[in-house]
Amino acid sequence: MRIGPFLGSTVLALVVGLVVGLVGPVSPARAADVPTVGAKTAYVIDSAGTIHYAKRQTRRVPVASLVKVMTAYVVLREAQLGDRIEVTAADVRYAASNGAATAALAKGERLTVRDLLYGLMLPSGADAANVLARRYGPGKAAFVAKMNATARRLGLGDTHYTNADGMPSPAGAYSTAFDQVKLAKVALDDATFRTIVSREVHKVAKSPLQRAHTWRNTNKLLQSADDVLGVKTGYTDAAGFCLLFAGERSGRRVIGVLLGDQDARRFSTAERLLDHAGEQIAGS
What is the chain's percent helix, strand, coil content, to nearest 5? Predict the structure, then answer.
């Protein structure tokens, strides 16, 4: 990669980000081809390991509900999808008292792990996160310990969890764009995870064990772009609007993340980054 012909602050940030602490091939691109990215940090790679965009990708920041990707990953290794778990008043109260997004779970209903994972990932239910963490810790503290142990095992050296839902905590959870993409790459190897995060709507039929639920995916990229695999949205005041995304482009899986962005802009930017990566792959 030659730095000389590149001009402009956005591209300079790209070049600096690529150089700091990374090893891997870099996709060649003219300055005019690189999408403008307003997010505070960002990172995009493909399944061959080619880096298509990088901006402060090793900076530690809060990632809001992107934390739930690790929650789902741990649960999928601990649970049977057909297991049923009863929702408690504490699960419902936890989400409501923290002003978090919920899956509208009700005390006493007994849902399968499969359905709870949909409630976790589509509407980003903190109540579903609480149910799953409580069961598969067992206890929330033990579950968070499993999340951090898994992060270490996966080599996510700049990631630390304090809860299973991504809500702000005094202890201060953090991750990086680099680590989030690395985690998504591993999680997307799981067929059940891929199915869940790519679903636009999931319905749970009413039964003697549960209420009826209709959960819609908060990831608008699924409606606006082709060949998108998910993955997860997030928002807190501290983290800003976040989006972990993936799609198939030119025969490769492209995975990226935007942290600290604006709401609508994160989806349009992600679509441009996916298409930009596809063009670079096709031209390589």
Answer: 40, 20, 40
